[in-house]
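Reviewer comment 2.1 asked that we show a complete input and output for one of the modelled complexes. We chose the flavin mononucleotide case, as it is the one discussed in the main text.
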Amino acid sequence: MPVTQIVYASRPFGYDELALRNILVIARRNNSRSGITGALICREDLFLQLLEGRRDVVQTTLDRIRHDDRHTDLRVLLDEDSSDRLFPDWAMRHDPARSWMWTAAQVADGAVHSATPAETRAVFTRLSREPAMAQDPAPGCPLEPGA
Ligand SMILES: Cc1cc2nc3c(=O)[nH]c(=O)nc-3n(C[C@H](O)[C@H](O)[C@H](O)COP(=O)(O)O)c2cc1C
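Response of the prediction step:
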């Protein structure tokens, strides 16, 4: 089944472990109900999130996320239809930014917010081939869509 994939970048506002945990708990609860999968890359200076699922559902979810005051400067970097999901088993995988992504200096320079759709897709394609981090900030949440 074709799916819509949307990726946005934003800047966390008041980022800490508890805030991140709360975001993941709600995201996984809602997404497992609505058939959304994806991954959320986080660090103090960056959120980069892939949402994949039915176009209308992804759009409604993004509209809610856009109005969330736990982040700011949200910019959509990729909006495409695809034949396959990159994270079919994850209602929202959590990934701390990895060393092969952008440096803090590049993030401060706006490198992520100006990434092309191809560069953005490459980050998530690579991530989907790497194992998830063993330490999950919100363990025990439903991970699988429909779980
Ligand atoms: C970085 C970030 C990522 C989020 N990801 C999701 C998500 O994938 N799905 C979702 O439903 N809500 C997500 N949220 C939370 C929404 O902004 C919103 O708080 C939530 O959907 C409200 O759900 P409720 O009406 O069930 O409480 C995210 C928020 C932030 C700040």
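Strands lie at 3-12, 37-43, 46-53, 71-82, 93-96. We note this here for comparison with the apo prediction described in Section 3.2.
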